[in-house]
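Lipocalin-like domain-containing protein
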Amino acid sequence: MGQPVDAEVIANALPGTWHLSATNLPMWLDGSRRSPEREYELLSQQPLAITDRLRFTDAKGASHTIEGTDRWAGEGFVWRGAGRLRLNRARWSIAALDDDVLVSHFERSRLTPAGTEVAIREGSRHPELRRLIATDLQRFGLSLEQFASLTWLDHVPAM
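Tokens:
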């Protein structure tokens, strides 16, 4: 798999807005949630903590935001929801992170199954993202099975 991404690299490279390009998480594949994006903002570098805002629109066009805080736990993050989701936690890790591409793995939680997301930084253009990742799965921290399980969101049918 890809090289572990350390907290210092994450603190410098992760902040910003990322648009979801591919996933195997059911919540993005049924057509009820569209145009997902995550915005990360650095809260503290030592210990590493970031705010996490997940935005999407529903099938009727209404905007939704889910907020939480991610705290570094050695090899990944523990997300804790804010507001009505404050009792919910989830664990996730970064498999690959560069200037434009973010690959994240999510562990199973009370609310979601385990899965993978591929995102690109806002303003980046990768018309051949699928091909780029397919040619170097190890660099992006994906196994062949994980890559094959991804659905590229430009191909998700509308409800």
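The domain at 7-153 is CATH 2.40.128.20 (Lipocalin).
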